[in-house]
Amino acid sequence: MKRDNFATRLGLLAAAAGSAVGLGNIWKFPYITGKNGGAAFILVYLVCIVLIGVPVMLSEFALGRKTQANAVGAYKKLEPKKSWYLTGILSVLTAFIILSYYAIIAGWVFSYISKAITGKLTSVAPSALGDYFNGIISQTAQPLFWNFVVLAITAFVVIAGVKDGVEKYSKMLMPILFVLLIILMVRSVTLHGASKGLEFLFKPDFSQLTPASILEAVGHAFYSLSLGMGIIMTYGSYIKKEENLVSLSLQVTVLDTLVALMAGIVIFPAVFAYGLEPNSGPALIFVTLPAVFKSMPFGSFFATLFFALIAIAAITSTISLLEVVVACFTEQFSIERKKATILISIALFIVGIPSTLSFGVWSDVSIFGKSIFDAFDFLTSNIFLPFAGILVCIFVGWIWGSKNAAKEISSYGAFSFKLEKVYSFVVKVLAPVVIGMIFLYFTGIMDKLKSVGTMLPNIVL
Ligand code: PHE
């Protein structure tokens, strides 16, 4: 079977950056920054991105391009007799589960667009917005309908293929995303009292920074760059040998970080200008910001632009998640693309139902003390992702070998790769150790170890 490829460099960049730029940048980054004290957290995040994010992204691109195969096939090609392909299966499974609930949040965003256009959103009293949001997400039919819309749009693009679907639409949507971001940024910073928000964003307060925030920064760097899910690997498999992977990875990372910061510049000045709290957590964009839009002249218009922006960011990410799963099924099981996409999308819709209901009629159901939605999120973001991340690093660093990876990265000498030694050290040692720590921390194992540690002296004495 002939494999599809990205046709242009710009299209490739738009698709990879489109995957990276998502709800993580516009929804999660601002609220975790708000929670962790603003600028100090951003500094730590930048260090994590450069030190861990870029090398791991390079490794995934290299693995994909070398093998010209999907996330499972790549391991099978390099180590046919070993079980490394299980790492690929873990990545594909993670992508599937993440997509099943990511599409639900994207669905909320779509429903907010429809409410912003009609002016309904800005007619709600600010104090009632929390209940309004809960009222929307706790229903059954409406969220499922919007979830269906998101999956249908995603499937439509993926069916069209890499060049005529993923590339074409990313190239169209990403510039629109930037234009919307710039319009909203200008609006926000010109509000009276905006400077406090900028100060919050750019003046570090190290007292708010805890070891936990550092681990949160590494975890978010991984999530935001779409690493550990086989996405970058799969996209890498559609890249031509002449492409410079180092500059590509740097560009994707810079764009991703730029959008996260720009989203912060849209959100915080507006939040401070209207005297609202920056640390309202996940409710920041759905509850706090509509209050901001309500007080603004032409609020419905800006609210519509804002939610359209998030919708675009989310769709280019759902496309990449679905592509990983579809690429795996078409190649490993020789299922035709259209059929595979439709079947997987139906499965996603079904798996998403319990997560959707966990905000409403099933809100009492709990798995290990978490709602179904939170349990899925926890399992994938905090356990599967770091675990797959460590395995990718070990595979590239020690099994395939960082020397071989470096050859692929430099396109066999066509480009210089000056930081090869640093790269080697990061994939072999630093990244697995740091990611291992996040894993221990988020799974609660670290706390247990610590309490054993503090108990030990007593026992010994
Ligand atoms: N990187 C995307 C974001 O920042 C999220 C994402 C996660 C995309 C997982 C694909 C897969 O939102």
Explain what this protein looks like in three dimensions.
There is one protein chain. This protein has 461 residues and is an all-alpha fold. It contains 18 helices and no strands. α1 (9-20) packs across α14, α2 (23-35) packs antiparallel against α10 and α16 runs antiparallel to α17 (420-442). The termini are far apart. The structure holds phenylalanine.
Summarize the structure.
The chain has helices spanning 9-20, 23-35, 39-67, 71-78, 85-117, 129-137, 141-159, 162-189, 195-202, 211-224, 231-236, 245-273, 288-295, 299-333, 337-357, 372-409, 420-442, 445-460. The chain is mostly helical and 461 residues long.
Topology:
Elements: H1 9-20, H2 23-35, H3 39-67, H4 71-78, H5 85-117, H6 129-137, H7 141-159, H8 162-189, H9 195-202, H10 211-224, H11 231-236, H12 245-273, H13 288-295, H14 299-333, H15 337-357, H16 372-409, H17 420-442, H18 445-460
Helix pairs in contact: 1-8, 1-12, 1-14, 2-10, 2-12, 3-4, 3-10, 3-12, 3-16, 3-17, 4-5, 5-7, 5-14, 5-15, 5-16, 7-8, 7-14, 7-15, 8-12, 8-14, 9-12, 10-17, 13-14, 14-15, 16-17
Bound molecules: phenylalanine.
